[in-house]
Design goal:
The structure is a homotrimer of 682-residue chains. In chain A, the strands form three sheets. In chain A, strands 9, 10, 11, 12, 13, 14, 15, 16, 17, 18 and 19 form an eleven-stranded mixed beta sheet that branches. In chain A, strands 1-2-3-4-5-6-7-8 form an eight-stranded parallel barrel, surrounded by four helices. The C terminus of chain A is likely disordered. The two termini of chain A are 16 Å apart. The first copy, chain A, is built from 17 helices and 25 strands. Chain A is 30% helix and 22% strand. Chain A is globular. Chains A and C meet through helix 8 and strand 13 of A and helix 2 and helix 4 of C.
Chain lengths: 682, 682, 682
């Protein structure tokens, strides 16, 4: 068990921006926070200009006041490093901090995140700022956590200016040492791109045609490293001045611009901002579950924090649907089910003005209370959730322990997203297809890096794992040899870590374990579809992609029934050592995948604890003494599950459940089961 | 009665660009103009380079000649200030006049309107040019009107260069005096955007994310003021050198980039360029009617001029449909019906070359007469209309006097168009929905500013009037209190003049008069639809938007029948003082709106003079002695109307009509009725 | 008969880039080439950086080695001038060679073709490079052809920088001599665009609105001339140092950015890169046939070379379909059928890395041979084709002699593609409509310039020949007068060579020969359709465009049956001299066009040698002694043809065919018929 904070409650609160309001509102805020069961606020995220109104001139009075007011009110502070949005004076004095886009255009101040992450001017001023803040509040009793920057890279993924070009060259020189090495890795012999010295290298700026893919991939790696450097820079200062206080930064779920595994490595915990689109209905729930698993797996040994969500409606989509009654609650419990020990919102009080004045908040324009004396729904749903969280403190510090893992590698993702493939394949979409199938089958899973320790899993899935090193391939082979099950998706293992294609039959390094090789890739046009037929004579449609596979030891367990490749294998199985390895050579429709998974699961010795129907999410957390089974009905209708012989007490209602049960729309059960009682404990 | 010109005819003619043709063509032009009944031409609109071929060197001989030829031919001149397109020498000598776009890119010469409206180089050269022209021709007997510039802002709405930045800062300093005031209004505490001095402020150039909305709104206001300054600059010079001659500038119907009310304030009359797309069929007619009403309402006490239209086919749409036979005539009479005392075209003679060589003209490439001796349709339809206009001189100077007004405020329009709303709402589309319903119901109306005098109206409509000041709200409340009817659309009264949201329940300042408050906005996705049911059990569909409304004195006259808000009010009525106020909380389908209007009209004591079927436009002009009822059939089939006891003489045919009548497609009646005879005079 | 090379085989090979591979691979390459029947490779296309790794330092050792190895292996070399992609050192030293786009943005190095074709820095370095290469290898016995640059202008069509602006001004001064002449031609009186001197002229850079069309058209002409200059520059050097060796450059089929006729004028032969999209099915075949005809007609007196195609799958479309088995072979024979004496591929060995690492190749990643010892399909299909080509050497040097020509003029194409037309008309799409109808009717044709000699043809078609000079019109009139048939499509003959509209009734210069004039253009919206009815009472649909035509001697052979122009002629015929001239005033659906052609063909005295069904391509090459009838089944099913009394020996199978025959999908016949035997010889 690993508690994140020196605090006995589930973190519950919001971004708080008191600088937007006169002081008379602050007193009311504290009272309303207490009413809403808020126990923590994120403070100062966009306060650089307020804290340092002029170069080196710091103004802490207002921050002293509000932190003290919060402390007196019993509300903890997740204090920001305030580096997310440089003030106007800094941009005027050091215009070199402004990012330059791929076409050479300056991105000017006036919104937010208008800094080149590689800029030394930005970094030196950021360091001074963090130092001042951490020194002043590093040991304040209200401060239980640090919040570095905000949603790194969500607007700026790179800057193409000359300073960044210099940093890039230096980074390349460290990586390759000799220019001939770089020329070989980038294959600059192609299109006459040879470099005689590192001095000749430029960022991949706007060009007549596709730039060198080696250059593009290293450019992505370089910027990922720049973001990791920023985190390390802030961490070092905070750790020195605020020892023992945990530090995190809030990630964006849908964004993979930097290597989140590398960036999270030295953080104390991971946290993210979750904004599923209510208009997506059930897909919002399944996709959100995937992002929770992505984030949790970055530090699988401890809980994470849901750092931002909205209670009602965001303002940045083209059409911003409201969350229906109960959905915010169900999604909050979903976060907890998948490992969160904190539920936070953006933001506490809705802004009167500014770009996010129509973003939902705990206290809306209308107020916590309406003219007729009733609570607004916005406020009521939050307050009620806050009260419920008091009842589930026993889950704090418990974690998930899945037996299944999906492999994800940011570098493979980036390499696959470069132009000029047989067809474009979206790594995350491939992962979502698999994740959703497991989610529908009620199987918990991790999303891990192929370099991670895989020995604890019984089944691993590699969907479009385009890039694969020899070491990684060896590990996968060994995993199967020792009894693991491998499911390998199409277009995997194509290139090495230099993005060089393996020769001699894809996926070269997995030929042995899979018992096949691929001769041709056959992408399908949008209006094309072929059919496959499996051993049980079930026919299933294939879209987007299929491959010509040759067997070399494996058996076909399904074959194409029509199209250019009719009669050839579409899915193969190879027994290897004590395990077995499947290859899916095509983009097969989801229902077949779900059925396939169930059969694999059975063969892997995994068993489902709860039999539920689709749209009922079940997920398990555990600690040394208990397991906690979460059952959440994301459907808009009543749904059924069967606990069989399991028996547990729902932490929310206090009632005991066993056998067949029914859940209303958005209903949530959290069954606590003592380990000694449970016959199914791992 | 207010005659625009010292001239006893309806203005009839076209833009005339003799500089594109050798002098031998000019003589033929005069004769053809006479044949076509043309009595006025707009001259010199794009002649800067011809008038001032080099810096300070003026060449007037050619202009002297053609003006004299026109004068001798009995054709009046609407003389241009020629400032619309700066010559090449000016751009080469003063490249600072070129506009810079939001991304920092120069907009180069070679087309037209390539000047930064704030540029002092542009302004000083423009002043010298106008001075020279006005001095030379200001008292010429042929000149009956001045034509300032051309379609202001149709390509350039702003320039983001450094000179404009300086002007913007100066404008802001005048507006806010203290930087702290600006910080408060722009809410720069959000996203760390605080300014320590006006010097730090930049135009809202390309940025990583949405710029501050206060900055964006003031940027729009600033540029609107710059355009008003340009008009005032030209006006002052012309008024001094050409006293008594009326001045106008041709507006673009569909464009609202500057505040047209402010810009028109000191002009002698308003005029506009009307290019409805023939491919739109009946919608072209209803939309065109709306734009006529927008323009006429800018100076409601006098007629306006239709400064440009095409007789056949334009060249700037992707696919340029021809106007079918009769449509140009019907749309010309529509302009007159809604207040025009002039019908002008672009252009007299079709260009042989240049970007608009395929834009229709009165004399096409083929000529006025074809090889077989017949007139081209292009020429014939114009000539025939010119002859008809001789018969309707009695309408000159008469005006419309509607009893209904739609409220429009350019600043509200701009504020609502900024990003980050619950969903995007198009002010003009909302107005068009209402206007079209009134048009279908045969009710004339004005489109006025909420600061205008509303006391003459019986019914006012506020569609998506997002911004509302306390003064405006007071006036609306008083209007209802004294017996007026108010129809208020959704998402109205949300922000004050600083674009700050009102707190405590939208629409805050209209809560009393409407007897309701709104708790939540529920935009609908494109594929979503909910149903409402009214007091008569009529069910109607709702798209795009609906709101959760609470009653506080009002009654629900319709409610949602399904969806997230089922059972809640969708339309409310509140009796207030001697009047009543309706709130429509949703984007309700058009047929219900039309029925609703008819019922409101009846209750307001308004009465329709003519009962007509849809697509038959009826509109009324009046003067001290007569009313003129226009009836125009825009349908492609015969349409019916019932004059009931009305009896009038058609100015076009000389026939008298009463009781039920029928009109052929494109047929037009203009019934003149002496006031003493009419029982229905207001 | 005109043989292209001093070589007795059909050229068969590929782009070869040995610099991407270590030398140990080269030896294997030679052996595999021999196995694949490869007899020639294109070498050095992207080798500038390898040949000249630093300014003026040349490195030929590697090239000496590989050329010698190829020579020893009996493989000929098509040697590149290597100027397609400037090395990094050159861009760093002379950044002025980088192209600047219309918005002022630099196009940076890192991909390919990053040079401004007008740059003197580029040209001087290119000259030195070509000189060095041609000097070293100009007389090497392996070198049988020169390959200038690569796919000119495929990414860069123009550069808007200041150096180019100076060249443009100089070019204009040569063309117009007096600025007043330019002002007249560009009609700069429109929109105040007058120039006082050439110094004031700029490239048509990004502007507020459409630039002057005269400027735009001359800008296209200027850049076309710049590309012609580059070819002439390289030609002069190569001709001096490598006398007698033929020179070409590989054109891009779908691109018409420069005047390919002018550019090809002094080349020894034309060649092109053909990449039909397999996803288009039968349309890929018919469109490809058109591009072959476009290219062949550039030098109609001799064969051409298919310089690049792919055997399997490209990498640069969004979704890259595989060529099904047999399609590559059928398309190769299609090229030969339409005049090719060489079949080359991109590329020999698939790259391991670089932008085109997923572009198909003769030796794929998997290799020529698979782990199970079988050949890969990629390699096998090539090898088999290479073997077949040995059997058809007798066709070398034979040519097509069509009796039908479609007129195409690049300047007309460019002028018609400028903005601001009644609707946008795509010249190539119009030509494709006609070409496909002839292809379906099994009629060979040329695509020639209106300035070319037309006297050898019996039928000429002018589809959307927007620009027409007096000389060209005279020639067409004379062609008809002397017995030719003319089919003239809509919107032809509208402007003269200065892009000035003719006055007095379009198409002015063809009024006499056509016996009609056009009064109005009526484009149709996407959802509009009208019907026409012909003399045989057949009704056919019309989309996109129709015109109002007046008869002046011609007869209507079809008329509009509905729509705005109902009752007016849609197709007319005029007997003129000994010939006749048709005018098609509308975009009539394809089936009617095919039937119409058959009827015209009959009347022209042309006869089809082979009666075949649709999708069966038939085409004829001939020399002094034989004719070669190609019959290719592009359908996916068996297709029938009737040779009637023709009897010939299939060069591929050695069998003799006559009377009715059947062809399997992708099957190819090449019937050789001795002239003395053939009753149908021309």
């Amino acid at each position: 068990m690993k508690k994140l904070f020196d605090f006995d409650e589930i973190l519950f609160g919001a971004d708080y921006n008191p600088e937007q309001w006169p002081q008379e509102v602050w007193q009311e805020d504290i009272k309303l926070m207490q009413a809403a069961q808020v126990n923590c606020v994120s403070l100062g995220i966009f306060s650089w200009a307020k804290i340092e109104p002029n170069d080196g001139i710091f103004s802490f009075d207002w921050l002293d006041t509000i932190i003290e007011m919060l402390h007196q009110g019993g509300i903890k502070v997740n204090l920001a490093s305030a580096t997310a949005s440089p003030p106007a004076w800094l941009c005027k004095k050091h215009p070199d901090i402004l990012p330059i886009d791929i076409a050479g255009q300056t991105l000017w101040p006036g919104s937010r995140q208008h800094y080149n992450p590689a800029s030394e001017s930005y970094r030196s001023h950021a360091r001074r700022l963090i130092g001042a803040i951490a020194k002043r509040y590093g040991k304040h009793p209200a401060v239980i956590s640090w919040h570095i920057n905000n949603e790194y890279a969500c607007h700026i993924q790179a800057s193409f200016d000359d300073e960044s070009a210099r940093h890039f060259r230096y980074w390349l020189e460290l990586r390759y040492e000799e220019i001939s090495h770089l020329n070989r890795v980038w294959n600059t012999a192609f299109w006459s791109q040879n470099y005689e010295s590192f001095d000749e290298i430029l960022p991949p700026r706007k060009a007549p045609h596709n730039p060198n893919p080696g250059q593009l991939l290293d450019w992505k790696r370089f910027w990922s490293d720049k973001y990791v450097e920023l985190v390390e820079m802030e961490l070092a200062i905070i750790r020195e001045l605020s020892p023992g206080i945990p530090v995190s930064t809030n990630l964006v779920g849908e964004q993979f611009f930097f290597d989140r595994r590398a960036l999270s490595k030295n953080l104390d915990y991971v946290s993210w901002d979750s904004y599923p689109d209510p208009a997506l209905g059930l897909q919002a729930a399944s996709r959100n579950a995937m992002h929770h698993d992505f984030i949790r797996s970055l530090k699988a040994d401890r809980p994470f924090v849901l750092m931002e969500q909205v209670n009602t409606q965001v303002n940045w989509r083209a059409i911003n649907s409201q969350k229906p009654e109960g959905v915010m609650r169900a999604q909050s419990f979903q976060a907890i089910a998948r490992g969160a020990d904190g539920i936070m919102y953006f933001q506490w009080r809705q802004s009167k003005a500014g770009d996010e004045m129509f973003h939902g908040a705990l206290v809306p324009h209308l107020g916590a209370v309406m003219p007729n004396g009733e609570e607004t729904r916005a406020f009521r749903e939050v307050r009620e959730l806050g009260q419920e969280l008091k009842n589930i403190k026993s889950i704090i510090g418990s974690i998930q322990k899945p037996q299944v893992a999906i492999l994800y590698n940011a570098e493979s993702h980036w390499a696959l997203s470069l132009p000029s493939k047989p067809a474009s394949i979206d790594t995350i979409q491939c992962i979502e297809t698999w994740h959703k199938a497991f989610w529908n089958d009620h199987i918990d899973l991790d999303i891990v890096h192929p370099d991670d320790d895989l020995s604890g899993y019984k089944l691993i899935v590699a969907p479009a794992l385009f890039m694969l090193s020899q070491t990684q391939a060896n590990k996968i082979e060994s995993f199967v040899e020792h009894g693991g099950k491998l499911i390998c998706g199409y277009f995997s293992g194509i290139v090495d870590q230099n993005n060089h294609a393996y020769l001699g039959g894809h996926p070269r390094l997995l030929q042995k374990v899979l018992g096949i090789w691929v001769e041709e890739w056959h992408p399908l046009q949008k209006n094309e579809c072929v059919t496959m037929i499996d051993q049980d004579c079930i026919k299933t449609e294939i879209h987007n992609w299929h491959e010509l596979v040759h067997l070399a030891g494996a058996q076909a367990i399904a074959s194409y029934d029509d199209g250019a490749l009719a009669g050839n294998p579409s899915v193969t199985r190879n027994y290897f050592g004590k395990g077995s390895a499947y290859y899916l050579a095509a983009d097969i429709d989801a229902p077949w995948i779900e059925t396939f998974i169930i059969s694999c699961i059975k063969k892997s010795g995994l068993r489902k604890r709860v039999i539920s129907q689709a749209g009922l999410e079940t997920s398990i957390r555990e600690n040394d003494t208990h397991i906690f089974i979460f059952i959440i009905n994301h459907n808009q209708s009543i749904a059924k599950a069967d606990l069989a012989s399991l028996s547990g007490t729902d932490l929310l209602s206090g009632k005991t459940f066993t056998g067949p049960i029914e859940l209303n729309p958005q209903e949530v059960l959290i069954l606590e089961i003592a380990r000694s009682k449970s016959v199914h404990c791992p």
